[in-house]
Specification:
Blueprint (H helix, E strand, L loop, with lengths): L7 H10 L5 H33 L6 H27 L14 H10 L1 H35 L1 H4 L6 E2 L10 E3 L2 E2 L3 H48 L5
Parallel strand pairs: 1-2
Antiparallel strand pairs: 2-3
Length: 234
Amino acid sequence: MTLVTTTPFRDAAAAVVGVPARTQTYRNLLYLLLSFPLGLAYFVALSVGFSAGVGLALTVLGVPLVLATLAGATVLARVEAELANRLLGTEIPTEMTFGSGGVVDAVKRLVTDPGTWLDVVYLGVKFVLGVVSFTALVSLLSASVSLLAAPLTYSSAYTVGLHVGTVSVGPFESGRLVVDTFPEAVGAAVAGLALALASLHALNALARVSAKIAETLLGEHDVEASAVAAPDRN
């Protein structure tokens, strides 16, 4: 019977090289990819809702618009919590708690509950995270793919590489660096593999930061909202 021994170095090497084989890596990438369009949509919805509500504050439509925007923010925050749970592995409560009072009590809870404003803050932060995530995702992965593809395209008459505003295929080219021979292409591919591994680790770290922010803002909301909305049993 042969025992397989592990060492800290071997474990660390496996953790570094094995990142493409982990399912969680691709869940993280999907979450980061969705962050930009969702964050942009949240930002536009909140901006329009609050600006319209404040602009119409002296009319009968102003206050209802602000309240509707706040209520919509709490719903969107629950959607975000569910998305983080499914893709990032968080355990944020997603059930919305409703009190037993009437409309006036519901409005009062909506406005005075700190969790409502935490939801609004999170949706605003989501837009910033979305921009950062999209920029990191596109720049890191596109550079990695361009380098990895060098052995397949180095002899082409076209170019592929870090160009702004153009899309083309062929030898990797970035500034004065041009890969147009096979040894250079192999070297570029090795560099691309290293960059791809480093990029996946960096993007996983960014996903963990996003998960922590979601747990901090949305998780605290549920605790506070439940305490406010739950009926007194004494």
